[in-house]
Amino acid sequence: MSFVKFSPRICFFLGFAACASLLGIGAYLQFVEELEPCPLCISQRLAILATGVIFLMAGLHSRGRKVYAVCSAVAALIGASVSARHVWLQHLPPEEVPECSPGLEYVFQHFPLADTIKLMLTGTGECAKIDWTLLGLSIPAWTLFAFILLAGWACLQFFNDADAV
């Protein structure tokens, strides 16, 4: 019994489709379920977007499979690190949770860019709040799981030498 092997380009397009789906789910949760994203959620969305763009570029190009695989895996692992921090913040005892900050729009308008980026990557008190769960896992936990899968998928393309299907 032989397994069907897909070309790396098709696999990269599948990775892009997964990232687009994740962004669609995020938009649904924000605009339909009215769950406002915190700074770490926005950072995770940016990491999903970056990973998806790399997957898309890899699918469009016929060369550089290994470079694209490494770049997309690195982007996914950066997103996983942000998600891991978010999960960690959500599991802190209430007395150790950092203070809430002003809204992100206010921070962008009145704070230096370096402080804004630091806030988006380290999180604040509102990042510790769990608004929604599925099977006992919060959104950042599911996002961490998705990032790990995306990084694994990208790493598999590093070794994918299928000609075409």
TrEMBL record:
S-S pairs: 38-41
Main location: membrane
Transmembrane regions listed in the UniProt entry: 42-60, 67-88, 139-159
Tree of life domain: Bacteria
InterPro entries: DiS_bond_form_DsbB/BdbC (IPR003752), Disulphide_bond_form_DsbB (IPR022920), DsbB (IPR050183), DsbB-like_sf (IPR023380)
Membrane topology: Multi-pass membrane protein
Intracellular or extracellular location(s): Cell inner membrane; Cell membrane
Topology Cytoplasmic: residue spans: 1-11, 161-165
GO molecular function: electron transfer activity; protein-disulfide reductase activity
GO-annotated cellular components: plasma membrane
Residues on Periplasmic side: 29-46
Family: Belongs to the DsbB family.
Role according to the record: Required for disulfide bond formation in some periplasmic proteins. Acts by oxidizing the DsbA protein.
Designated name of the protein: Disulfide bond formation protein B
Organism in which the protein naturally occurs: Methylomonas denitrificans
